[in-house]
Design brief:
31% helix, alpha/beta, globular, 112 residues, Rossmann fold, two-stranded parallel sheet, 4 helices
Length: 112
């Protein structure tokens, strides 16, 4: 969000969502400490975004889609809040093979 807030400038808002209140608070503190004011961050469920239809020009997801138990609904919500012609960019983990048992549920699995 930091880079996006800088790129949008003070006249535009940057919106962030997270699945946990702890991460929402952490992001607010970090962005405020960086001197940014053009942001809003909310705790949400990935399948229910509290924004109007066609609200965003761009949606960026960094790992949230991967955590969603209902990916089809997650994508429906993303496309609902995107303006026509809007852009979705996401980075998520995709497995091509099963993880070894010792890596299942491990933070190490996210880096391989």
């Amino acid at each position: 969000m930091y880079v996006v807030s800088l790129l949008t400038g003070e006249k535009a808002m940057t919106y962030g969502v997270d699945l946990t209140e702890k991460m929402v608070q952490r992001a607010r503190v970090n962005l405020t400490c960086a001197g940014l004011t053009n942001f809003e961050i909310r705790r949400v469920d990935s399948e229910n975004l509290p924004y109007a239809d066609s609200f965003f020009d761009v949606v960026i997801s960094n790992g949230v889609i991967n955590l969603s138990p209902c990916k089809q609904q997650c994508f429906r919500e993303i496309y609902r809040v995107l303006k026509p012609g809007g852009v979705l960019r996401f980075a998520d983990v995709v497995l091509e093979t099963e993880l070894p048992p010792h890596m299942t549920g491990s933070p190490e699995a996210w880096s391989h």
